[in-house]
Amino acid sequence: MMEIGWREWVALPELNVPGIKAKIDTGARSSALHTAEYEYVEDDFGQTWVHFVLHPLKKSKNCLRHGKAKVIAFREVKDSGGHIEKRPFIETRVNLAGFEWRIELSLTNREQMRFRMLIGRKGLEDHFLVNPAKSYLVGKSLREHYSKEEKG
To answer: Which domain does 40 fall in, by range?
Structure first.
């Protein structure tokens, strides 16, 4: 298994996110992605989809992505403060240092959190060993993918 640090740069290719800092959190069961706003749309087959906006770089309001994904479930999640929130979950691909796998993500507002994405135990299963003393072990910053957008 590949060793990774407690924080890493990852990409979400299906959501057009070439890079986002993720906290690797073995204490959290599920994974989460910051969304500033979202709305639900039902298709002709009764399937619920979510349209959302996300800002992959914390300090850049000019850099944003519009996403659309099928809602696979609504689940109650307890945050680190003990508050329970019902969240939509989607499934998408995540890429870390060239290794790609499918992951379930809840969508929530993480504006006050240090990281826009959190990868929990279920998202890490059977893929990685986490070294809590290290950061960015498997890849360089992916921020350069946004250079034009950051400038506005």
So the answer is: 2-139
